[in-house]
């Protein structure tokens, strides 16, 4: 097991104040309810990240210190319909400051629901990260819910949308079957092994 210990060390609600960078970090972002907390808990091998019963409730950037040397960062979810304009603005300011100023950020895992075609907000997120030069890979979540016969088709839809922006890695993943988990861990391990 690469991830030996995990501790939530900082919860940031306002732009600007981040913990000491240490060896750097990878971050996770996606629409509310995409399965981000579940993925983090799966990677951690224990239930630390809060699995929300109320989508749109997590409005902070949560820093999980891993192996006392690097962070896995839980960014607030987006795309939840019942969120006020002011709240959306706050989300954008918080995440934008993080993307622009957190030079120790090595890679973002952008989580997109694999059961359906990419949503407008997902594509906006892709365009935004590309624009800000934030390196990212895409994780297609809940792939266990896709019928075998539909799988190639839906993955191709996601691939063709991604292609409009560049050559990005796409990882089909499921918390149920654990498909894709090793691949995600391998990427993180490669970044922080040394
Ligand atoms: P978050 O809002 O992005 O943190 O999403 P959560 O991790 O709270 O998950 C939202 C819902 O999706 C919960 O009911 C999870 O049990 C479910 N879920 C998460 N990952 C998967 C998955 O890989 N497969 C399936 N079938 N359900 C999942």
Walk me through the topology:
Elements (H helix, E strand, L loop, with lengths): L5 E7 L12 E6 L5 H9 L16 E6 L3 E5 L10 H17 L3 E9 L6 H12 L4 E6 L6 H16 L6 E3 L8 H12 L2
Parallel strand pairs: 2-4, 2-5, 5-6, 6-7
Antiparallel strand pairs: 1-3, 3-4
The chain binds guanosine-5'-diphosphate.
The site of guanosine-5'-diphosphate has 19 residues, from helix 1.
Describe this structure in words.
- The protein has helices at 36-44, 85-101, 120-131, 148-163, 181-192; strands at residues 6-12, 25-30, 61-66, 70-74, 105-113, 136-141, 170-172.
- With 194 residues, it is of the alpha/beta class.
- It has a single domain, classed as P-loop containing nucleotide triphosphate hydrolases (Rossmann fold), CATH 3.40.50.300.
- A seven-stranded mixed sheet has the order 1-3-4-2-5-6-7, sandwiched between helices.
- Strand 6 (136-141), helix 4 (148-163) and strand 7 form a beta-alpha-beta unit.
- The protein is globular, with a radius of gyration of 16 Å.
- The protein binds guanosine-5'-diphosphate (GDP).
- Residues 30, 32-38, 51-52, 55, 77, 141-142, 144-145, 174-176 line the site of guanosine-5'-diphosphate (GDP).
- Guanosine-5'-diphosphate (GDP) is lined by residues 30, 32-38, 51-52, 55, 77, 141-142, 144-145, 174-176.
């Amino acid at each position: 097991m690469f991830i030996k210990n995990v501790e939530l060390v900082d919860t940031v609600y306002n732009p600007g104040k981040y913990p000491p960078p240490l060896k750097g970090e990878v971050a996770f972002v996606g629409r509310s309810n995409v399965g981000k907390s579940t993925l983090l808990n799966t990677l951690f091998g224990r239930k630390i990240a809060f699995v929300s019963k109320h989508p749109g409730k997590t409005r902070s950037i949560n820093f999980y210190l891993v192996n006392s040397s690097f962070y896995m960062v839980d960014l607030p979810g987006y795309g939840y319909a019942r969120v006020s304009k002011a709240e959306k603005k706050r989300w954008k300011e918080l995440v934008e400051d993080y993307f622009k100023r957190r030079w120790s950020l090595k890679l973002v895992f952008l989580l997109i629901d694999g059961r359906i075609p990419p949503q407008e907000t997902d594509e906006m997120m892709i365009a935004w990260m590309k624009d800000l030069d934030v390196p990212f890979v895409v994780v297609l979540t809940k792939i266990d819910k896709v019928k075998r016969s539909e799988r190639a088709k839906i993955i191709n839809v996601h691939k063709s949308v991604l292609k409009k922006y560049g050559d990005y890695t796409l990882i089909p993943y499921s918390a149920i079957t654990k498909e894709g988990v090793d691949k995600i861990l391998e990427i993180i391990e490669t970044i922080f092994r040394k």
